[in-house]
Design a protein that fits this description.
The structure holds 2 protein chains of 2 kinds.
Chain A (H helix, E strand, L loop, with lengths): L3 E2 L4 E5 L4 E3 L2 E2 L6 E8 L6 E7 L7 E2 L2 E6 L4 E6 L8 E9 L9 E2 L3 E6 L1
Parallel strand pairs in A: 2-12
Antiparallel strand pairs in A: 1-4, 3-9, 5-6, 5-10, 7-8, 8-9, 10-11, 10-12
Chain B lengths: L3 E4 L2 E4 L5 E7 L5 E7 L5 E9 L2 E4 L6 E3 L9 E3 L8 E8 L7 E2 L3 E5 L1
Parallel strand pairs in B: 2-11
Antiparallel strand pairs in B: 1-3, 3-8, 4-5, 4-9, 5-6, 7-8, 9-10, 9-11
The chains are: A mainly beta, B mainly beta.
């Protein structure tokens, strides 16, 4: 079974509008962390936002926020006020395990976001 | 500026040849990782190292080898046993187990 599922291969959004990129995850470990990364056409991976399984509040970083619904095992990324530079591939990733036990980060297959002017 | 340097940016391999991808970091991070990315796919973990002189296999380690003799360096060798090596290879590092990964700019490996 896939650990991370991103069901939207591609998404389109108009400039200045908000967009939600979906991510669901599968784990039986109570301790885990969820990450979102952006990959522009240049190929480099850029960290956007992190949510820990025990965090009480949804994470926010500037225009990025994470809609964390633990019971549904979803961690959707919300980008507000989209910009042309937001056009890129977006990856959701998860790290499972307690401190020191697991350094592995598992990635989903990604969503290609295109921002239209 | 601190960061991760991968070289070369593009690499070509002949059949039966071993090639080595370089990854150097000056972030003083303990953990380093190698990921493979195929077109339209997510990243898959090849090897990772939590500390110098120690490394573990990831999900797709067959046909690859690594070493971690220095904290700053984590080279990846793609051996002739890897029958489908064409892919984009990304090196990353992190300070600790909960920390975010910092990535290099990647190496595109192609087979001649």
């Amino acid at each position: 079974a896939q650990k991370i599922t991103q069901t939207q291969p591609g998404m389109f959004v108009q400039e200045k509008e908000a967009v939600t990129l979906d991510c669901t995850y599968d784990t039986s470990d109570p301790s885990y962390g969820l990450f979102w990364y952006k990959q522009p056409s240049s190929g480099e991976m850029i960290f956007l936002i992190y949510q820990g399984s025990y965090d009480q509040q949804n994470a926010t970083e500037g225009r990025y926020s994470l809609n964390f619904q633990k019971a549904r095992k979803s961690a959707n990324l919300v980008i507000s006020a989209s910009q042309l530079g937001d056009s890129a591939m977006y990856f959701c990733a998860m790290r499972e395990g307690s401190r020191g036990s697991n350094y592995k980060l598992t990635f989903g297959k990604g969503t290609l976001l295109t921002v239209n002017p | 500026d601190g960061g991760i340097t991968q070289s070369p940016k593009y690499l070509f391999r002949k059949e039966g040849q071993n090639v080595t991808l370089s990854c150097e970091q000056n972030l003083n991070h303990d953990a380093m990782y190698w990921y493979r990315q195929d077109p339209g796919q997510g990243l898959r973990l090849i090897y990772y190292s939590q500390i110098v002189n120690d490394f573990q296999k990831g999900d797709i380690a067959e046909g690859y080898s690594v070493s971690r003799e220095k904290k700053e360096s984590f080279p990846l060798t793609v051996t002739s046993a890897q029958k489908n090596p064409t892919a984009f290879y990304l090196c990353a590092s992190s300070r600790g187990w909960r920390e975010k990964l910092f990535f290099g700019s990647g190496t595109q490996l192609s087979v001649l």
